[in-house]
């Protein structure tokens, strides 16, 4: 690797065209400039300047080294500008969360990017173990989890409580909701739906409910954005977090059915402990927290 100090001396020498002026600009002696040049030539193994009396010009090797020196100087200047100017509207932010929460926050993240052309946001819908492992490994700046991980290398901030909702077609079932009526409709299942059913139905229908594996399945949907679609068309019911209901475009065709016992789970924003967050990550974290407040109000 080329010696950075010798390289900078050579670039300054070529730009000033004079040993004395280069020495003055670098706050060195003229013999010191000559010594740096000689050491750089020894490191390269070729002469870098061709002398014509008191004047000189770069050799072909010198021109190549000069180009490298100028490029390195520009890179260092760019690095300093990036480090010293922590602009919240510039750079990349990576986030991982559940699919339903991703649908809720994405319009707000999109608005932030529209107002900040130099801001890049990468949002990934992921299962909980990937969210936490990704934050630990530095793959994500921020993660949103459904519990406090209580991990020694993670910081967690409580955001809100989110209700788990029984979603039925509009005006399809009159309260009070019975388990038999739900079975007649049939379950629009999805990857997380069975665990939701075991939690919510065991709480509200302890006598009739015998486990999610015995539910009458009407449909199975793997895409989070499409899970409410069959329900909106009158085909079955489903179970979703409140964020998944609120973010569905045709939510006016859905009904969140009231149940005797409501079930809510916590949302936590997770980041690596001890890391000083760039301003852009702090800004997006505040935006996520603000959007989460709407779930507490439901």
UniProtKB/TrEMBL annotation:
Q: Which domain of life is it from?
A: Bacteria
The record's similarity note reads: Belongs to the LysR transcriptional regulatory family.
Q: Which PANTHER family match?
A: HTH-TYPE TRANSCRIPTIONAL REGULATOR, TRANSCRIPTIONAL REGULATOR LYSR FAMILY
- Note the InterPro entries from the entry: LysR_HTH_N, LysR_subst-bd, WH-like_DNA-bd_sf, WH_DNA-bd_sf
A Pfam family found in this protein is: LysR_substrate
Q: Which UniProt keywords apply?
A: DNA-binding, Transcription, Transcription regulation
The protein in question is named LysR family transcriptional regulator
Q: Taking every annotated instance into account, which residue ranges of this chain make up the domain HTH lysR-type? A: 2-59
Instruction: Tell me the lineage of the source organism.
Output: Bacteria, Pseudomonadati, Pseudomonadota, Alphaproteobacteria, Sphingomonadales
């Amino acid at each position: 690797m080329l010696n950075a100090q010798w390289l900078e001396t050579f670039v300054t020498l070529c730009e000033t065209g004079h040993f004395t002026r280069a020495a003055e600009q670098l706050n060195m002696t003229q013999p010191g400039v000559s010594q740096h040049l000689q050491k750089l030539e020894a490191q390269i193994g070729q002469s870098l300047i061709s002398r014509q009396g008191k004047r000189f010009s770069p050799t072909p090797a010198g021109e190549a080294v000069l180009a490298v020196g100028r490029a390195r100087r520009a890179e260092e200047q760019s690095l300093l500008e990036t480090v010293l100017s922590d602009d919240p509207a510039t750079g990349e932010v990576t986030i991982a969360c559940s699919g339903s929460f991703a649908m809720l926050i994405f319009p707000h993240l999109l608005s932030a990017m529209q107002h900040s052309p130099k801001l890049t946001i990468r949002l990934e819908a992921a299962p909980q173990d990937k969210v936490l492992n990704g934050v630990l490994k530095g793959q994500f700046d921020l993660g949103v989890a459904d519990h406090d991980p209580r991990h020694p290398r993670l910081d967690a901030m409580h955001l809100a409580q989110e209700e788990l909702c029984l979603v039925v077609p509009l005006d399809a079932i009159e309260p009070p909701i019975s388990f038999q009526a739900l079975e007649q409709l049939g379950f629009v299942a999805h990857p997380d739906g069975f665990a939701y059913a075991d939690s919510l139905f065991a709480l509200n229908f302890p006598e009739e409910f015998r486990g999610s594996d015995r539910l009458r399945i009407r449909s199975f949907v793997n895409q989070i954005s499409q899970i409410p679609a069959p329900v909106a068309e009158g085909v079955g019911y489903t179970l979703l977090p409140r964020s998944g209901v609120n973010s569905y475009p045709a939510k006016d065709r859905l009904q969140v059915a009231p149940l005797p016992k409501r079930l809510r789970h916590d949302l936590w924003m997770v980041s690596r402990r001890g890391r000083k967050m760039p301003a852009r990550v702090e800004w997006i974290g505040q935006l996520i927290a603000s959007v989460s407040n709407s779930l507490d109000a439901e």
